[in-house]
Amino acid sequence: MAVPKRKTSQARRDKRRANWKLSIPGFVSCPKCGEPIMGHRVCKACGYYNGKEVVKKEA
User: Fold this and answer.
1) What Å distances lie between residue 40 and 15, 43, 50, 53, 54, CA to CA?
2) How many CB atoms lie within 10 A of CB 45?
3) pLDDT per residue over 13-24, tens digit each?
4) pLDDT for residue 15
5) Do 43 and 56 meet the contact criterion of CB atoms below 8 Å apart?
6) What distance in Å separates the CA atoms of residue 2 and residue 26, rounded to the nearest whole number?
7) DSSP string, 1-59
8) Are 56 and 47 in contact (CB under 8 A)?
């Protein structure tokens, strides 16, 4: 098996590990009420998804 000839420096090792960042989720505005929601989810404010009422909300 291949074995490293030299020790990997801390800078080289940490540069490789620096790209494991979390990205923020993409928010879109609800076309019905304008509330910011995550894509492909039912709006918690009005209960609509894809132009149809999925969850009954009381005023």
Assistant:
1) 35, 9, 8, 14, 13
2) 14
3) 999 999 888 888
4) 94
5) no
6) 42
7) ----SSPPPHHHHHHHHTT----PPPEEE-TTT--EEETTS--TTT-EETTEE-S----
8) yes
Give the model confidence (pLDDT) of 6-48 as tens digits: 999 999 999 999 988 888 889 999 999 999 999 999 999 999 9
Q: For residue 8, what are its two tokens?
A: 């990997």
The token pair at 29 is 């505005």
User: What pTM was computed for the model?
Assistant: 0.56
For residue 14, the number of C-alpha atoms closer than 13 Å in the C-beta half-sphere is 3
